[in-house]
Amino acid sequence: MDTTENLTGGRATRGSAPDVPPRSSWWNRPRTVVVGAVLTGALVFRIGTALGVDPQVRAGSGTLEVTISAVIAASLTAALAGWGVRALLLRRRNGGRAAWLVLSGAVLLVSLLGPLGAATAGAILLLLLEHLAVGAVIALGLSGAAPRAATAA
Q1: Which residue, 74, 79, 106, 121, could crosslink 37 as a Cys pair with Cβ 3.0–4.6 Å?
Q2: Domain ranges within the chain, ordered by starting residue
Q3: What residue intervals traverse the membrane (predicted)?
Q4: pTM for this entry
Q5: Nearest to 139 by CA among 114, 109, 94
């Protein structure tokens, strides 16, 4: 039977599907992290508001209320940006895991400055917890997003 090498090093026979690694290791995981980050942000926000925290931030001479749609949009934006940066770092020879963890940690620390502008102590605590929770989901979830190397059978 005629066989050929496919791009992943696996063998395929003529008329059969090539030996392709599953997409779950490099495609489904980042998508799951994006959804998880959005759900985490929304959940922390809902719990905080259910406990009576009024999430308002100072804006100019007044205050601005933080809404669930703003939380979802910010979490989604951060997760998608993280996915893009992680995909670029995966092109490095070593997979860029260490660089990813340092970079995502630095971005998380800078993002923690934002909640310090909240109007009340409860709002500061809620927004800090939200940033930490979403940041942890993104940083740790995408740190293991590297595709698995094909093993010889």
Answers
A1: 79
A2: 23-143
A3: 33-53, 68-89, 98-118, 124-146
A4: 0.76
A5: 109
Where do we find the tokens 């059978």? Answer: 153
Strand partners, 118: 57
φ/ψ of residue 48, rounded to 5: -60, -45
What's the length of the chain? 153
Is the Cα torsion angle 96, 75, 140, 107 positive or negative in sign? positive
Q: How far is CA 13 from CA 19, 24, 79, in A?
A: 10, 24, 40
For residue 14, the model assigns a pLDDT of: 56
**Cβ-contact 119, 63 below 8 angstroms:** yes
Element counts in the chain: helices (H) and strands (E): 4, 4
Q: Give whichever of 11-25, 31-45, 54-68, 91-105 has the largest mean pLDDT.
A: 31-45
pLDDT of 70 = 96
pLDDT class of 92 with cuts at 50, 70, 90? confident
Bridge partners, residue 4, by sequence: 12
Report which residue type is found at 78. A
